[in-house]
Amino acid sequence: MTGVEVDGVAVEVPEGAPLLAAVRAAGIELPALCQDDRLSPAGSCRTCLVRADGRIVAACVTPAAPGATVEAATDGLRALRRDAVEVIVSALPSRALTEDGRTELAHACRSVGIGPEVAAGAGGRGEDTSHPYVHLDRDLCIACGRCVRMCAEVQGTFALTLTGRGAETVVAPGTGGPWVESDCVACGGCVDTCPTGAISEPGPAPGLTTAVRPAPPMTRTTCGYCGVGCALDVVAEEDRIAAVLPARDGPVNRGHACVKGRFAHGYLTSPERLTQPLLRGEHGLEPVGWDEALAHIARGLRAAIRAGGPDAVAAISSARSTNEENYLVQKFMRVVIGTNNVDNCSRLCHSPSAAGLTASFGLPGGTDTFDDVERSDCLLVVGANPVEAHPVIGARLLRRVLRGARLVVADPRAVGLAPHADVHLRPRPGTNVALCHGLAHVLLTEGLVDDEFLRHRAAGLPELTGLLADYPPDRVADLTGVPAADLVAAARLYGRAERPAIVYGLGVTEHLHGTDGVRALANLAILRGAVGTGRGFGVNPLRGQNNVQGASDMGALPDVLPGYGKVTDPAVRARAEEVWGVPVPPRPGLRIPEMFAAARAGRLGALWVIGEDVCATDPDANRVARALDICPLVVCDELFLSETARHADVVLPVASWLEKDGTFVNFDRRFQRVRPAVAPPGRARTDFDTVRAVAEAMGTDLGCPTPADALAECARMSPHFAGLSHRRLDREGAVCWPCPDPDRPGQATLYRERFATADGRAHLAAVPHLPPGEQPDGDYPLVMVTGRRWAHYNSGSMTRRGGNLALDPVDHLDIHPDDAVRYGLRDGEPVQVISRYGRARLIARIGGETAPGQVFCSFHFPASGVNRVTSDHADTVTSCPEYKVTAVRLAADGAG
Ligand code: FES
């Protein structure tokens, strides 16, 4: 810390902090119109002038030197600052300073005694209202450059620039045209930092930013889109969302957000929102009251049990619901129905992570926090496109790279980080295991391994060494298509780094051998001793949905109870039975694909689908729909009449993440609170209330009257969560699991003393490369890969209802120019994608992002039918679908 004296008051600030921090620590407020704590200082507006050791300086750019003497509150300095603000304001039109103005500029003017009459500029520079979320009023721009720096330094998009000279200087998209056609990805950073309202969010509360003082009443919650876990402050006016602001003290997002969390809340008030239960009658789904819907469900569940026993009932819980809701769903199935037939959509994304990481290290989560990963000097990013799918993490990774970390990207596509990579490996889809073995081969043969770690903390080296003899770079080049020299270069970067870290995504898991892919990746960290040692930051999955980690943590899985104790283990069951007071069925239940198969075979009498649009997101969607149509009772909790809801017998209207209470667990095992900012519409209820109500209709009180009670009960069942409670999270904000003790911090970094395996060692896996389930051939010569686009989320039910649709309105099929020529396709042309399972209709987009022989599309537009094309091949260990490899052919739309 550095000691400084400000107007006679001794203060301490962190080393390297600017004088501005010292002045604020002394309780003196200064205008600082070009400064934002999230950004590098510019020192251009001169509104923060102070005298330090006799010299007039800008406090924002002058470091606080030890022992410095600072004057800040003298009349002379106040006058200087007032003059600086007045010069700026006098060039602005009068609307810049209304009496009740709540911008940072308005606040600064009030603090230095400048009234609205000073704003007397002519204006006339016009507006840019082309973008649905970001409006530019050029007349209010003071050219402070905060937006430009936010876009470059925090978001890493470099979409904005300052143009013009002198007083005419104004912010503009770097591409020159309308904002909506620029490179802007609508993270909202520019809106959030703008001190004047020149860049603002249109809507009920324009100009609302985290810089507004005093801040309006806000609800702190956790984002319900991807698994990053951004902390958000929600401003509601008259029970409608007025703005969603990124929390500056958010442990993961640190004052940043993305186009989804920040802006995509328009769906809440969509006229298509379900507001009352629907029951299938003579004329299809018809509105009914809750009592009638619940009675029908209870009758159907009893009939299913009578006909086929408890195992004739199954539930798909939701990675979008809270932990407490997931806890209650699995409790309902085990306690009320008497079956372990409960699963969640981690089956379709990261179940191989859970299986692979558990086998390698002992626990089913990432090994380190992202704060650790960010300290890495070499990032290996595999099968992930965080710039689009996890934008806040993508931005943090890019920042780290721009500050000097080396980067290896392994992905078939030229994903967002690839242009910044030292080496971009582009393996053919389905060859990850061979790629990892090739890297491991180089680590071993070049002595880039940690012998001591391998001797004392790892197992399986002889077996792996034997296997790796078959994976020299030349052979791996043949298997994967990655040049041997690139493979060697990547291995040397990872192998020679002091603190390497691995981050990966669904490009690793969604394969026929996805679990093997995770284990082969884990091998690299083990060989390097880069896990559990502080000499590297392990292996870290980027979770897709907001609470996919938590849904599994809570035991919404067919083989484990809350906290991952096996249902086959009598001691685990005994602990649950003590808490629940009823026997727990010992036989593992059905996985999601097995549920559909059982339904098609006539063995399933009832299926409850909670918040998952399985007809849109699950593979081989035609067969999924058939399963739902055959099952006698399908109940669906939904926000909208989704594809799945259309096949249901009862549809229950439910609350969204902005309307409910509970917790989520993010991708680095952080529990964070979720709080309702507005009430659900009409008669919609939370999933939590829905599960309790169905239990009651079945004659059982599930206990846990509140979400806090549910987490408390879960904490009694599992040592991993024993130290967690809503009260603690309200106090501390975020706590990582494992957290066995209420009085001690959660374990953010795992395995510093021992691994959680039976022998305490990390386990290398000698798993051979095996071919994918789908292979291109003469009839289906291309490989289709699916994934996410930046503006949308999953089946798109939330992001297609609002401004995001304007940002990305078309369901594209990305295709390489060589293939476009080969198949006679033009950019923008409708195209059919045909596989052995079905066909989809998309719009061709020609570009170099995909490799020749591959096409890429999202699954955000169910009407296109992409998941009618994907196969039912699945990971041999966990049944995770092989979404990343489907053999297809193309045909002009209308052809066969
Ligand atoms: Fe210090 Fe602008 S805030 S010069």
Automatic annotation (TrEMBL):
Alphabetized Gene3D superfamilies for the sequence: 2.40.40.20, 3.10.20.740, 3.30.70.20, 3.40.50.740, ADC-like domains, Dimethylsulfoxide Reductase, domain 2
4Fe-4S Mo/W bis-MGD-type domain residues: 216-272
Keywords attached to this entry: 4Fe-4S, Iron, Iron-sulfur, Metal-binding, Oxidoreductase, Repeat
Domain 2Fe-2S ferredoxin-type: 1-76
Residue ranges annotated for the 4Fe-4S ferredoxin-type domain, each copy included: 132-163, 176-204
Protein name: Formate dehydrogenase major subunit
GO molecular function, one term: formate dehydrogenase (NAD+) activity
Enzyme category, top tier: oxidoreductase
Organism domain of life: Bacteria
EC number(s) recorded for this UniProt protein: 1.17.1.9
Pfam families: Fer2_4 (PF13510), Fer4_Nqo3 (PF22117), Molybdop_Fe4S4 (PF04879), Molybdopterin (PF00384), Molydop_binding (PF01568)
Similarity comment text for this entry: In the C-terminal section; belongs to the prokaryotic molybdopterin-containing oxidoreductase family.
Keyword Coiled coil: no
